[in-house]
Specification:
Helix content: 40-55%
Distance between the termini: 52 Å
Oligomer: single chain
Strand order of the largest sheet: 1-2-8-5-3
Largest sheet: 5 strands, mixed
Shape: globular
CATH architecture: Orthogonal Bundle
Number of helices: 17
CATH topology: Cytochrome p450
Strand content: 5-15%
Bound molecules: protoporphyrin IX containing FE
CATH superfamily: Cytochrome P450
Number of strands: 12
CATH class: Mainly Alpha
Structural class: alpha+beta
Radius of gyration: 22 Å
Number of domains: 1
Length: 446
């Protein structure tokens, strides 16, 4: 067993710090094996990522405290840079601003509203599955990202002009590809250098804002379209909460597209990667879909009748949570894991680390069957693909509904097979995605 070096506050330093760079490369490239290594050490560990003190919290009950207590907020340099890059939407707002934003956005994500968006989800999922020529290689992750983005844009504003939707999609894709590295590197001047990559990112950011402004203007013209945006044009009725300004609406459009497209696309891509390697799971999934839907795509009404499909999705989210590492900052002096920390301390926590931990027996095994029984109380704290507490994902129910609908549309029409010799590895961009995933869409033979 290796002994961990302790800081003068008695908190051990996490293993794997590099000379000068500390743990920055590990956090930047989402080093998953490193996160698992840290789990074997103390419950709270110092990580070296620049001048501010930062700590990795490695025990589910402590992470739960971090997420539900008002002594912690979203914050820190990573989030500040994210806000500079993407605007002040729900995902990057700090507590003071967050409560109002969340109350205004919540009515657009009720079960009834999500059921209404299910038609669009089904149409886009079918169009995707049908676009794949049998026997051809497909770029599954890219195709799924386009589909999830199209669904979100149509849910935002059903009457949107398709050209506007395509423009917005292409700009957001550039932002998704570049935002994580720009937020994570603690030297913002690097991204102000006039390199081709920086210029492209800046152009996309300006264009995405302009396109989102146009979408907001279009929502004003069609206030009865029934989309998310038109719900947001009115103030929250009960407490006289002022409605969003147009600028805030623009930031919410960008936030929702960034938060909701690649996260779900990566999850569904992992799912088909795993299905191809676990024929018994694939066969059971196909059987449920066939028995319930007889080749059709799931509608909102079918979702409760597809428990195994949902369990497969939950299990993929356990093994490959799209947001594997997140942060919080203490807003006051706190005690965590027996250690004292001053206000303004940064904390990291990892869904990947907790979900691969001892609360899930045989944790590395892909086993959707584990979801047939209720989780233990400890495992409930450890299972946080959508986070928890007041910053829990706003789109969790939306994502689960869309995930099942996408799976049903694809698995009822095509069987996805890996290209021989392709090598898939986890890669953290904005979401934890399967890099190198190459698949062939074969016709489905029963
Ligand atoms: C599999 C799909 C998804 C996963 C795993 C996921 C995960 C997450 C996580 C972990 C957070 C919390 C971050 C934190 O605690 O710091 C979050 C926040 C958020 N997500 Fe998702 N998400 C998914 C899909 C979606 C979708 C489809 C939407 C929109 C329709 C969405 C919208 C948001 C928003 C707006 C927030 C900020 C919530 C707040 O701060 O109050 N997400 N998501």
């Amino acid at each position: 067993m290796t002994r961990q070096r302790r800081t003068r506050y008695g908190v051990p330093v996490a293993p794997g710090a590099l000379p000068l760079l500390g743990h920055t490369p590990r956090l930047l490239y989402g080093s998953l094996p490193w996160l698992l290594r840290c789990r074997d050490g103390d419950t709270v560990q110092r990580v070296k990522v620049g001048p501010r003190p930062a700590y990795l919290v490695c025990r589910p009950d402590l992470v739960h405290a971090l997420l539900v207590s008002h002594d912690f907020d979203k914050g820190g340099p990573l989030l500040d840079r994210g806000r500079d890059l993407l605007g002040d939407g729900l995902g990057t707002a700090t507590d003071a601003n967050h409560r109002r934003q969340r109350r205004l956005l919540q009515p657009a994500f009720t079960t009834a509203r999500i059921n209404a968006y299910a038609t669009v989800m089904g149409e886009e999922a079918e169009a995707l599955a049908q676009s794949w020529q049998p026997g051809r290689e497909i770029d599954l992750l890219a195709d799924l990202t386009t589909t999830t983005m199209r669904v979100l844009i149509r849910a935002l504003l059903p009457t949107i002009d398709p050209r506007q939707a395509d423009q917005l999609t292409s700009h957001i894709r550039v932002l998704i590809a570049g935002v994580f590295i720009r937020a994570a590197i603690p030297h913002p001047w690097l991204h102000q250098l006039p390199t081709p990559g920086n210029r492209r990112f800046d152009r996309a950011r300006t264009a995405a804002r302009a396109a989102a402004d146009q979408v907001v203007a279009a929502a004003h013209k069609s206030p009865c379209s029934g989309g998310v945006l038109t719900t947001l044009l009115v103030p929250a009725d009960d407490a006289g909460i002022p409605a969003f300004t147009d600028e805030e609406l623009r930031d919410q459009v960008i936030t929702l597209l960034i938060a909701g497209a690649e996260t779900l696309a990566a999850t569904v891509a992992w799912l088909f990667h795993l299905l191809a390697r676990h024929p018994h799971v694939e066969a059971r999934l196909h059987a449920e879909l066939h028995d319930t839907l007889a080749g059709a795509t799931a509608t909102a009404a079918d979702l409760p009748a597809l428990p195994y499909t949902r369990d497969v999705l939950l299990e993929v989210l356990r093994l490959y949570p799209p947001a594997p590492l997140l942060t919080r900052v203490s807003t006051t002096d706190v005690v965590l894991g027996g250690h004292h920390f001053p206000a303004g301390t940064d904390f990291f926590f990892s869904a990947y680390q907790l979900q691969h931990g001892p609360d899930f027996p045989d944790a590395e095994r892909f086993d959707p069957g584990r979801w047939s029984a209720p989780l233990t109380a400890a495992a409930r704290h450890a299972y946080i693909p959508f986070s928890s507490g007041r910053r829990k994902c706003l789109g969790d129910a939306f994502a689960l509904a869309e995930g099942v609908i996408l799976i049903s549309a694809i698995a009822s029409r095509r069987r996805l097979r890996p290209v021989p010799d392709s090598r898939v590895r986890p890669h953290v961009r904005l979401a934890l995605a399967p890099a190198g995933l190459r698949m062939i869409a074969e016709p489905l033979r029963r």
